[in-house]
Amino acid sequence: MTLTCRLRSVRKEFINRVSEAVLNQLLDKLLECGVVNDEEMQAVRAKTRADKARDVIDTVRGKGTEASSALISALCEVDPCLSRELTLR
C-alpha cells in the first residue's frame, strides 16, 4: 500500500483524534521540510481543529509520496501513541 493510500485509510480517525497541539507541531515540521509553505500554513492555522486536521492530511496526500512520508515521520515523532494506534509506524 502506498503512503498516500495509508493516509487515506486513516483519514477519518486522524481527523477525529489528533489534538490541536499535535497539529500545530506537525505544521511546523512540515513547513521546516518544505512540504507546506507559509501561506498554506497560515490558512490552515486559522481553522477549527477538525478542519485543520482535514486540511493537513488532504494537502499532504495531494502532494504525493514524499510529502506523505514526511507527515507520517513527523506524526511518529510528535505523537508516537497516535501514530501507533493508526498503524502508521
Automatic annotation (TrEMBL):
GO terms for molecular function: cysteine-type endopeptidase activity. Residues 7-89 form the CARD domain. Gene3D superfamilies: Death Domain, Fas. GO terms for biological process: proteolysis; regulation of apoptotic process; regulation of inflammatory response. One of its GO terms (cellular component) is NLRP3 inflammasome complex. It comes from the Eukaryota. This is CARD domain-containing protein. It comes from Lates calcarifer.
